[in-house]
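In practice, a research group might receive sequence data for several interacting partners and want a quick structural hypothesis before committing to experiments. The following worked case mirrors that situation: the sequences arrive first, and a predicted assembly follows.
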Amino acid sequence: MASFATSSTFTAIPATTATTTTTTKRLPNSPLFSTSHQRSKKIHRNFKVSCNIADNNEKRLESENLTLLERHNLDRRNLLLGLGAGGLYTTVNLPAALAAPITTPDISTCKASVDGFFNLKDRVRTNACCPPLPPPTVKSVKKHVLPKCEPVRLRPAAHRVTPEYLDKYQRAMAAMRALPDEDPHSFVQQAKIHCAYCNGGYFQEGYPNKELQVHNCWLFFPFHRWYLYFFERILGKLIDDPTFGLPYWNWDNPSGMSMPAFFEGKILDPNTRELNPAFDAFRNVEHLPPAILDIDFNNAASADFTCVQQIGSNLSLMYKQMITNSPNSATFFGGEYKAGDDPISLQNSKGPIESGVHTAAHIWVGNPRMPNNEDMGNFYSSGWDPLFYTHHANVDRMWKIWKDLKGPEYPDHTEPTDPDWLDASYVFYDENKELVRVYNKDCVQMENLHYEYEPSPLPWLKSRPIGRNKNSNVVPKSFGNVKKVEETKFPVKLDKIVKVLVKRPTINRSKEDKKKAYELLYVNDIKLDGEKFVKFDVFVNDVDDGTPCSPLDSEFAGSFSQLAHYHGNKMLMSSGVTFGLNELLDDIQAESDEYILVTLVPRTGCEDVTVGVIKVELVPSTASG
Ligand code: C2O
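A structural hypothesis for the assembly, expressed as tokens:
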């Protein structure tokens, strides 16, 4: 279906008036980039036209050995002369009715944001995040070939790395930081990858007006798996160690819930003044060790918990996110996103890990004193913090753990099988600076990528929360002025607490019934300003009995949270979240209730948020069906 993907030729980008000034440096000794190939001082890239150059032009270009930039200009001439116009988009356009996998275009069509740079106390952060172009001899993106006969890279838990490992990690990171900015292996370029895939750098192949986005949808896990895979292989190559594995931030284990110690401290050695390559200046100083990550962090105050309570709350949330709210692939991976879909109008749910602990750790680490919570608190800048890659290694580990949970309780812990998920693809520079295309389907078997995670205990597996209001049958009690869903006018505003009664499709479900189908609560068509951090909590049958409900209680279904995208202006987007009710209703002994009381509690950034759909549905288990 996506044959164009592997053979896509580099397409041209006509110049326009909008420009981005760059910090491009010359690379006298970069093996990949000749100076003739450097981006010019002013690069015009914000207007993207995906023009496949006509055959004869192609030959001429080859024979003249023109650089990509020159080709862009030539193509622009063609465009102005009307030569190219007829051919625009023709080879890659897909009929909109036919779903297809999201396909990253070749990188030459990357659109640098025109918003430019932030000078944050002399450190530059930018959302002009396109990668360097390949040499002119490179005409297409190759399909990545999985490694064979290679040692397995062991990814250790960051809080207990050995001094020998730490030395390797620091040498590799220092080497990466020492590369010139325009080198595709440099830390700056690695950081920009995240921004390009999240802040509008790419448009979907075949859909020149549809941005490509790897968050809030089922691309979240596989995209980040590939991103770390190459990051790790580049680091290994820089220290000539094919066994090098990234450290993971073991935030699901009480002993790993603080920021790993070696990320702290600017200077490694006071005598030599050697810099710590894992340090980042833009972190929340109140959250340095020994502070414990709050997986329910809402960017305002953390709950007034003791350490023991905080750990308990975190473990309880991990259980809810990994088990209760993730019974099958659709819930765990998040909503579908196919070619032609506009990523800002996806109304279905993202996965509980993405929305939960993943977002919480981002915003908890980012510096609230920076204009956009840089670095980790905003998508565009996250990759600039080395902790990002260690955080995401644990996110990736959650995928592996979830998949490996076997047994009758977890019949549907498998990856999506839809070809539009399997064939979705991204483009990266590999450890040899070759531009390669990778597919979701090739990262499903982690073993094939030749890395694994050092084991660590999973105490959250035994942290199923306790019901607070046993046998409450809250509905008659709180019926009062709470409306039923069908009497509620949607969309509802979330500028205050929202309560609705939702009718269940059926009641008194037996254990067997629950194996056959998952009862899911959907809070969908959430409209929000994508420029802001947003979080709200969702409770089921929480009665106002004076004791606030916390993540330690089973009435706490979970949260919706969304990290800000820097986009330069208000960005209306939509999203959703799903919660599992099978266990929750047992825990609160409400299985015989006809209605559940759903309470949405705004926490941060919800002033303009609206919710379009609240519903409960039964979703059949694929394994038992
Ligand atoms: Cu791409 Cu943690 O986000």
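Before designing any experiment, note the following. The pocket of CU-O-CU linkage is lined by residues 194, 198, 215, 224, 358, 362, 382, 392 (CB under 6 Å). The chain is about 25% helix and 15% strand.
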